[in-house]
Amino acid sequence: MSSSDNSENQNKLIIADTHVHLHNCFDLDIMLDSALENFSRLFSGKGRENNFIGILFLIKIGKQNNNFNQLIQPREKLKNWNFQQTGEKISLYARNKLNQGLFLIAGCQIVSSENLEVLALATDRDFQDGLPLKELIRAIASVDGIPVLPWGVGKWFGRRGKILSNLFNDSELPLFFLGDNSGRPKFWLRPHYFKQAETKGIKILPGTDPLPLPSEVRRPGSFGFKIRADLNFHYPGSHLKQMLLDRSLMIEPYGSLETPFRFIHNQLLIRV
């Protein structure tokens, strides 16, 4: 939310990045400044820069130090941002010195026994690595989280791709999503699993998924989805979760995929 009125909104545009990691190499001030700038850039020159609500889903990896309690009482005070609790445990409101802000919603990343990554969005629960994929999806849904299987370089090839494909035909599974991310290079075709999932009514949730490189700190907010709706500012995580679980909701993706040079450069860096 870029305005200072932290009350019920009137059908504003909600812009969300569903896959953000707060890596140890990231400066939180810079990350939040960049996310707000990336959201605002969507309205550049349109005369409505303040008429949106920005949301970042902060995805914890393992014991990464980015849980919400640590954001409320950070070890080092941020220069430009402070955090306010909402009416729920799964979200925070981050406000800068210009009275602009963003909502942060909790989540975590887990790896199944099949070595497939799964995100649990809009929940502060932890889940055990190594559970079978279907069991993990059910466990996330049972605590009202949103299960998402994110795309990753080489993650859906071969045996794991077949496991993913078989999920689409399991009518007994709770609702889950696939995840796209901005690290997918422009020269690669859109994964055929996306189209296969969409024919089964499974939606694709985009997010940046920044790599653990200092240069990636400015990516959050640059890739995600847009919807126009009212949002309950006291319970933003629960309300957005309710909207996403509505099969009739139309999700509009935004953002650009990775350039060939930067993709290759980043892949080399994370393997050094």
Description:
By secondary structure, the protein is of the alpha/beta class. The protein has a single domain, classed as TIM Barrel (Alpha-Beta Barrel), CATH 3.20.20.140. 25% of the residues lie in helices and 25% in strands. The chain contains 7 helices and 11 strands. It has helices spanning 28-41, 68-72, 133-142, 158-167, 192-199, 236-244, 260-270, and strands spanning 12-20, 52-61, 81-85, 91-96, 101-111, 117-121, 146-150, 177-181, 204-207, 224-229, 252-254. Strands 1, 2, 3, 4, 5, 6, 7, 8, 9, 10 and 11 form an 11-stranded mixed sheet that branches. Strand 5 and strand 6 (117-121) form a beta hairpin. The protein is globular and about 50 Å long. It starts with 11 loop residues before the first strand and ends with a helix. Residues 1-7 have low confidence and may be disordered.
According to CATH, what is the class? Alpha Beta
Indicate the percent of residues in helices. Answer: 10-25%
For the residues shown, what is the average pLDDT? 90
Largest sheet: number of strands, sense, barrel closure = 11 strands, mixed
Secondary-structure element sequence? EHEHEEEEHEHEHEEHEH
Structural class: alpha/beta
What name does the CATH topology carry? TIM Barrel
* Cα Rg: 18 Å
How many structural domains can be distinguished in the coordinates?
1
Global outline: globular
Report the count of strand segments.
Answer: 11
Q: What is the number of helices?
A: 7
Query: Termini separation (Å)?
Result: 38 Å
Question: CATH homologous superfamily - what is it?
Answer: Metal-dependent hydrolases
Determine the strand fraction and express it as a percent band: 25-35%
Instruction: List the uncertain runs.
Output: 1-7
- CATH-defined architecture: Alpha-Beta Barrel
